[in-house]
Amino acid sequence: MPDHVESGTEHEKQDNGAERFGRQEVARLMSTFEALQRENDLSERRYADDVGIPRTTLQYWKNRKENLQASPATLAFFESPEGVEFLHRFVVAAHLVMTWMGTCGIRLVCLLIELTGLGPFIADSYGAQQAVSAKMQNAIVEYGSEERKRLSADMSHKKITVGEDETFLSEDICLVAQEPVSGFILTEGYVEHRDAGTWNTKMAEASKGMDIEVIQSTADEGSGIALHTKDMGAKHSPDLFHPQHEVGRAMALPLASREKKEKEARQETIAELLRLIEAERTYWEGPRGPGRPPNFGIRIDDAYAAEEETARQLERTQKHRRGWREAIHGIEEAYHPFNLDTASPQTAERLSKDLETRFDEIVKICEEADLSESSKDRVRKARRVVPKMVSTMAFFHEEVRRRVEALRLPPNQEKLLLENLIPTAYFLRSASKTQNKDRKARIRKTLDELQSELLFPGSAASALTAEERSALEAVAFDCADVFQRSSSGIEGRNGQLSLWEHAMRRLLPKKLEGLTVIHNYFIERPDGTTAAERFFGHRPRELVQWLLDHVPMPSRSAMNRKNPVKLTLFKCS
User: Fold this and answer.
1) To bridge 243 with a disulfide, which of 36, 382, 431, 556 should be the other Cys (CB 3.0-4.6 Å)?
2) In what order do the strands lie in the sheet with 235-238?
3) Average pLDDT over residues 490-509
4) What pLDDT does 573 receive?
């Protein structure tokens, strides 16, 4: 065989056993043939014999390329090996972004291919792209399974907190468990029941092969989750959202509705007062009829009294609305392991006193506002969580103490870790999550004071080596992350699944499994890390490259079969 022809070809087997060439191989062979023909005027027969293909096959490839409806430059690129590679990546990226990252359907992918003018090179029919979508779904699920096994084998022992909750999609129960620090979803799938036994089974399957120990579960007060947490030997910690939500449901709407009615009543009394004043002025300025004049003074005094009463009622209701909101914010500010202003540890005893004081204020508002019994029941339900919140605070400080003592550090480093580094790590986490500007400013002020102490000459931190600083910093963040008061990550995930279920009418189990893989291994935070990388400590393989290796290049477009039927009232003879 002449040395100017590459030997060996790649073949793909069709279902009927016939061999065909892959698109990449066809592009390579045609590109080589065209180059040799330009340089050496190589004949079709000789080239076909050299590479071991029928001459008619080569002629078919050549005629097909010449008949494509595209400009010469476009044709030259997309029929080259580089162009075929681009088309492959384009189709994979379109499906990944539109049908996995977004809630688009396959028909929009077809429309994208058509509008970009790639129809001559990629089949834009629904059937062709549906086949690509099915292969991609299988590849994504396979990728998730392979990566979990690979990354689990290299991970070190890890004590974790999990956020657990259930959501309902198309009347099906979906259990979701997520590690809140990394955002890694441990389990997400449909079940028939949401009892403790089902939770135990799902979590056992999720943690199989992983060197993890669940020490805490942050969740609502559902009996199934609570019993499941006990079965795991973990601490059940209430999240902050649910008691706040119960108080909000108890007071927000009733007080807002009352304020609206009282504003309307006050406007009516003001209008009546102005009407009487205008009537008195008109009476005394205009011609007066026979009889005694109306007693405008008494009427106007009564109108003034009515206006003042409605103003007092409105002011009282507005005060009640401000009061319960301030109490809610007070609960939120108190439920931190460190004081926001002084960074001193928040003890369980102090937390209990603060929370009880805030709930006393809320109960007092309920009594003064004479809210309904159902509203009072909701407040009592929220208040029952207080002992568990206090218990969680005690658990946090005890767990931190055990972890620090296990390190057997020198006394000065242990003190530095407990009094400065762990609070600093916690406030760094909190500052990035807090949305309230005033609270963020308070946290930043305390954070600046803590970090300035680390830079003070002669401090314990100044004597640390670079390795010691790195080790203590890792311990500080691990300890700070033990306190998890929110299941917002789970609630957000439930919202995403609801949107998917709404868009697709029903979220099928395999699609749900693929969405979990996308969340864990593909979506990145601003720092460029995926949930899997943060959880396992190792970066997963690139998902896009995996898909390119496992999802075949889509087929070419067939002949244009569009033959629209024109509707007519008159039947042709």
Assistant:
1) 382
2) 184-191, 172-179, 158-169, 212-219, 235-238
3) 88
4) 52
